[in-house]
Amino acid sequence: MSLADHIRTESARLAALCTACGECVRACPMVPYAPGVAESGPEAVAAGLVDVLRDGPGTEAARAWIAACTRSGVCTPACPERIDPAFMLRLATWRAKGALGAAPLIPVKEDPQLPARVKAFARLTMTEEEQRAWL
Ligand code: SF4
C-alpha cells in the first residue's frame, strides 16, 4: 500500500469512528493559539476536522487548529471512543498541506532539505520492502 493510500484508508477509518464530541479539542493546550477555535466550540472544530479527513475543506477554525497542532498528544487520552486524535490531527495536517495532491488548506513552510532527511531516517527504520513501496 502506498503512503497516499494509507492516508486515505486511515482517514476514512477514523472519520467513521469519530463522533465529533470535541473532547480532544477541550484537552488541547494549543486552543488559545489557534484563532477562532475557542469561539467556534469544540464540537464544531472536531466536525471540521472530520470534514478534512473526508476530502472537505473543513472550517476556518478547524484549519487553524490543524495548523496549530504541535503533536503534544495531550488529546489522545481524552478521547472517549479510544480513537487516537493525535494521529487524526497528523492525517489532517498531511491532507491540509496537500499531501494527496489537492491545493493546500493551510500555510506550508518550504524546506528543500526535508525530503532528504525523511528518506535518510526512513532507511534506518523501514524494511527493504517498505522502502520500495513508500520511498
Ligand atoms: S475526542 Fe475522539 S470522538 Fe471526540 S471529537 Fe476527538 S477524536 Fe472524535
UniProtKB/TrEMBL annotation:
<keyword id="KW-0408">Iron</keyword>
<protein>
    <submittedName>
        <fullName>(Fe-S)-binding protein</fullName>
    </submittedName>
</protein>
<dbReference type="InterPro" id="IPR017896">
    <property type="entry name" value="4Fe4S_Fe-S-bd"/>
</dbReference>
<keyword id="KW-0411">Iron-sulfur</keyword>
<keyword id="KW-0479">Metal-binding</keyword>
<dbReference type="InterPro" id="IPR017900">
    <property type="entry name" value="4Fe4S_Fe_S_CS"/>
</dbReference>
<feature type="domain" description="4Fe-4S ferredoxin-type">
    <location>
        <begin position="9"/>
        <end position="40"/>
    </location>
</feature>
<dbReference type="InterPro" id="IPR009051">
    <property type="entry name" value="Helical_ferredxn"/>
</dbReference>
<dbReference type="Pfam" id="PF12800">
    <property type="entry name" value="Fer4_4"/>
</dbReference>
